[in-house]
Amino acid sequence: MTHEEQSLQTKKALAASLKKLLAHKSFSRITVTEIIEDCGLNRKTFYYHFEDIYGLLRWMLEQDLLSVILSFDLTTDYEQALTYAIDYIEQNKQLLYCIFHNFGHDEMKHLFYRDFAQLVDSIICASEQKLGLYLDEDFHRFLECYYTGALSGILMAVFEKLYVTDRQQLIDNVSLIFHASLPTLIEQKGTPRE
């Protein structure tokens, strides 16, 4: 096993212990000692991989969302990736509330933003290829930021129950926005591929 594989396995073991502990107590009451005792590692190993428990929590959430989202073919299955994200929010409310209460609204939105930036970039690239056009780097980045901000914002609104709708309706609405607006923007700002 390579060092990278071993490191990933260690991080996963620490994350699994944290998740297990979160099922029984609040994040603010969990200690590094409890985590390392649960997974049979030592304190030095924990601090080799993470600066603190907050670092472990951030990594755990990023891995949970990002690893599964990236397992989809984002050029064709972005609706499935979005469905997964909504399901993840519903199934991990306790963990997400913990993050929300310990890190705040902005940090949680930032986590969603980072995880969805690659999804949005893939959707834009697929649309460019389909239309035989490409966008200059600045406008491509602008669209990525715009759509990612909107997507992470709506997921935060769903999480905070500021926007309540049927799960499928949410997916349909997001898909409609991408299908209706993105090709038009690319056609207006794009340059033909050579």
UniProtKB/TrEMBL annotation:
Residues 31-50 bind DNA. It comes from the Bacteria. GO terms for molecular function: DNA binding. It holds the Pfam family TetR_C_8. The keyword Ubl conjugation does not apply. Residues 8-68 form the HTH tetR-type domain. The keyword Glycoprotein does not apply. Keywords: DNA-binding. This is TetR/AcrR family transcriptional regulator C-terminal domain-containing protein. It comes from Anaerosacchariphilus hominis.
